[in-house]
Each structure stands twice: as C-alpha cells, then as structure tokens.
Amino acid sequence: MSLIIIVIIFVLFLLQWKWVNKRGYKTRLPPGSMGWPYIGETLKLYTQHPKTFFSIRSKRYGSIFKSHILGCPCVMISSPEAAKIVLVSKAHLFKPTYPPSKEKMIGPEALFFHQGDYHSMLKKLVQSSFSPSAIKGSVHAIENIVLNCLPKWENATTPIYTLQEMKKYAFEVAMISAFGDNPEQETQGIKCLYQKLEKGYNSMPLDFPGTPFHKAMKARKSLNERLRKLIEKRRRSGESGGGLLGILLKKQKLNEISDSQIADNIIGVIFAAHDTTASVLTWVLKYLHDNANVLEAVVREQDGIRRKLQHEDKRALTWDDTRHMLLTTRVIQETLRSASILSFTFREAVEDVEFQGYVIPKGWKVLPLFRTIHHSSDFFPQPEIFDPSRFEVPPKPNTYIPFGNGAHSCPGSELAKLEMLIFLHHLTTTYRWKVIGAEDAIQYGPFPVPKGGLPIQVIPRSNKNINKKI
Ligand code: HEM
C-alpha cells in the first residue's frame, strides 16, 4: 500500500515538473514554490493566517510569485501597479474564474462569470440600480429594517452573535435592493428558498441525494420557478416594479435579456450583497469596541446628527444626513482596509502573458492580493494600527481596493456603505455593546471574522447623553 502511495506521489511530482518546464517556461516563470503535487500550498493557505502566508512569500520572493492552490497553478501579485494591469489595463487577458459549483448555484448567466458585451450591458443595469441617485430613496426602508432589529437585541437574555444578526440585516437590505421597497408577497417564498440554497454555498460539490450540495441545487431549481412566476406577474401587471428586478424587466421589454438571465443576476446580487457587508459590519463593531477613543468620536458625530433630527420635528434620517457622517465613513474605510475580508480575487490568463519580465502561462490563475496591498507599510504606515484618520487624505492611486478595480469592481459599494452608516447611527446613539470573551482569534466562513461571530451583550444608553453636547 505504502509503495503505491510513493509511486503516485512520484508520478504527480513528475507531472508537475513537466508542466512547469514545458515550452521553456521554467526560467521565465515568477519565483516561488509549487508545494506538494496536486495539493500544492492549499493546506498552508487555509491553515495559516492570510497575513502570515502572503507576507512570508512576499518577503522571500518579492511582489510577484508563483504557487499552487486548490489544484491550480497560480501567480500571486501584491504590487498596486501589477494589480492594476490584471484588473484594469490588461483585463481582457485575465478572465474572471470561479469554481464550477459556484457557477451552478448562482447561475451561469450572472455577470460575475462574463466579460465583453454581455458583461458591460448587465453591469450598466446593475450599476444604475445601485448608484447614489437610485439608492437615495431607500434610506427610509433600510432605517426601518434597523429599527425593527435593534430592540430585539436589547431584550436578549443570551449573547447576540453579531455576524449572524448582521447577516439577517444585510439579507433584508439585499432583498429590497433586488425587489424594491414594497416587495410582493412572493418574495417571502424566494427568501426561504434562498436561505436553503445558501447552506450549500461552501459545501463539497457532491450532487447526490442527502448532500448539502444536492439540497442547495434543488432549492436553486425551485428558486428559478418562483422568480419566473414573479417576473410573469410583474409583466402581466404592466408595471416593471422596483429594485434591480424592475430595472432588468424594463430592459426585457426591449427583448435584450431573458428570464433566466434575470433570475441568475438577481440571485447573484443577493449572493454578493449580504455576507460581505455583514462581515465588514461585524468588524466595525469589534474595532469600535476595542478602540474607545474612536468610538467616543463616532458617538459625538452621531449624537450631533440625532440632535439635528430631533430639532427638525423628529424627522427620519435622509441621504444628506449620511453625507455628514464623515468620521463614521472613515471608520468604515479603515475597517475595509484593516479587515480586508476579500483577501484576494481570482483571474485566469486567457493566453500566455508577458508580465513584468516573467511569463504567466495560459490557464494559470492570477491572484491580486488586496490584503497584502492594504497592509503594506509603504502605503499605510503602521498598517496593524486601526486609525481612521489615515483616510483624512485620499490613499495613493490603486493602493486601496476593497471593492476591486476595473470592469468587475463592485457595483454595490455605495449601498454597502449606506447600510453600514444607517446601522451605526442607530446603534451608537441608542446602545453600548460589550464583547463577550477576550479572544482575538479569527474564523473563516467564508470571510475572515472574529471568532464565534463576535458574541456581544447590548445595553441601552441613557437618553440624557444623547441630548447633551459632549
Ligand atoms: C462591504 C461589502 C462589499 C465588499 C467588500 C464587496 C467587494 C467586492 C469586490 C472586491 C468585488 C470585485 C471582485 C473581483 O474583481 O473579482 C465585488 C464585485 C461585486 N459586488 Fe461587491 N462587495 C460588497 C458589497 C456588495 C453589495 C451590497 C452588492 C450589491 C448590492 C455587491 C454586488 C457585487 C457584484 C454584482 C459584483 C460583481 C461585479 C462584476 O463582476 O462586474 N457587492 N464586490
């Protein structure tokens, strides 16, 4: 038995060696280690802190190095200039790439998986749905979601698991961004099915009865049917309706987009919108808790806004109020940098590419390392310190890319920031929170978040403090 294993390992080494040496690449490939045959450096990447994995290699090999992750040879890049080449100036040579199981679950016609005309047509529609002028009108609906969820925290007799609660909040916001502020009855069923689909996102892609993947695929099929029915209902009523769905249906009137393309993109946007925002909000609460002086300054800013609302007939928050939350905005910017929940993204070379004196062979994955760039002391002095004031001056070009860069950059960045600001306004003016347990460890699910999803205890603030000028 052990002889067979030795022979298999030897053959895999041989294949990997041949692959690396073919077409005379060897001398021109970037430096780096391909690790063990087949598994490469996957185990190291997923067991070490991302900071350790990438910084060891950047120190050893420089800002561009090769590796082997999840069965694929890849090149990792950590300079802003190189990331810009891959994501912006030579983006046509590097196509987006995702595991086939993700594509099946979200739907192959979602914009993430495409380039060229189809991608730009969809991107314009999605961007118009989440542009500041489009989301301005949603402030009230988002605020209502916050006001509905926060009082439940206050009465909790057990710890509040921040990540879990933030996921619920960001999911509700994603639903109104997909279907509008007055979603139809049908969206309740869509919500339940989406939650079933979500359980399979990070499962092994084993498609037979009983597996999480199989259950998720079944939910995905039912979701298609429900979405088709809702599309049909809106079509029959003659009203395109609100949210991204409304915008896509208007386009459909011009026969430029099919029902399945609409369904895949609605699911895609819900997928992209909520775990990301929920993870970042969880980090904001952790950083504010750990940095009392920053929290105090945020409270001062938010109390000022609250006093203004009270003096103006106790009116609700507006978009313009959120534009005056300058310090809170910097806290969000610094959280996006410091936590860098998307440590990197994936592209694939569509041909052999000459790249900064090296060759990246066709089919190799290319990973721009967002986290490494955000944690470089060349661009962010003392990168390990949480310091929102660093954003009082704009960062150097291409050094701050929490929402990506180029054609595939995030169309939801303004919505994500808006929902965080609204949430923080109500949380800081009404409550205080205490993190339970002193552990500073991190868990991945799939994004890095404080261990245990940040259990907290929430305490109401005395109202006297809000009306008092600090
Ligand atoms: C703080 C929260 C968020 C973060 C950190 C984030 C980050 C990102 C990043 C880095 C990308 C680019 C990925 C790449 O180039 O491979 C991206 C793409 C995308 N994001 Fe976000 N995102 C967030 C919230 C949202 C929200 C709220 C929405 C929707 C309302 C959204 C929708 C999308 C979509 C549709 C794409 C794909 C764009 C394309 O392929 O052209 N994201 N996001």
TrEMBL record:
Localisation: Membrane
Concerning Pfam families, the annotation shows: p450
Q: How does it sit in the membrane?
A: Single-pass membrane protein
Q: Which PROSITE patterns does the annotation name? A: CYTOCHROME_P450
Which keywords annotate this record? Heme, Iron, Membrane, Metal-binding, Monooxygenase, Oxidoreductase, Transmembrane, Transmembrane helix
Gene3D superfamilies in alphabetical order: Cytochrome P450
Per the similarity annotation, which family is this?
Belongs to the cytochrome P450 family.
What is the protein's name according to its record?
Abscisic acid 8'-hydroxylase
